[in-house]
Design brief:
- This protein has a domain at about 60-115.
- The protein is about 70% helix and about 0% strand.
- It has helices at about 10-30, 35-85, 100-115, 135-145.
């Protein structure tokens, strides 16, 4: 403080202020020297983040589409199962409506009431002769025929 001098002119004031400004600018430049690099990194990372978000959105859309297909396949499977259990022909399964198995089953029962049960009756026994091409089977059939006389 012993070197204090009174500033009497504008040039002296400009010189003192200019020195202080230059020191402050130098300190700021040293402190924020990597600002441009950080700005480039932020820009690069922001671009990568945007690309990742677009990729994720694309994957979400794909997952949604696949989930919709799975739901369609599950519904078709339930319709087919219910139609066959109710005695409807396989071709009628796609005509059943409902969001869950209970509703589909109710629709199938209503359809059976309208068109009737289409289940074929099982045969009581085989009416086809048992044909074997061996000599023993030929003698067996002759013997069976003789027993029936």
């Amino acid at each position: 403080m012993a070197d204090f001098t009174v500033i009497e002119t504008q040039e002296q004031l400009d010189k003192v202020i200019g020195d202080r400004i230059r020191r402050a600018e130098k300190q700021a430049a040293e402190k924020y020297a990597d600002y441009d690099d950080l700005k480039k990194q932020v820009t690069h990372l922001t671009e990568q983040l945007q690309k990742q978000k677009e990729t994720i959105d694309g994957h979400k859309a794909t997952v949604d589409e696949l989930n919709a297909k799975i739901h369609q396949y599950e519904t078709a499977s339930v319709k087919t199962k219910v139609a066959l259990e109710a005695g409807l022909p396989y071709q009628m399964a796609s005509r059943l409506t409902g969001d869950d198995e209970k509703a589909i089953r109710a629709d199938a029962e209503a359809m059976v009431k309208l068109i009737g049960n289409n289940r074929p009756a099982a045969p009581l026994g085989s009416s086809e002769p048992n044909v074997k091409n061996t000599e023993a089977s030929a003698w067996a059939s002759v013997s069976a025929a003789l027993n029936n006389i």
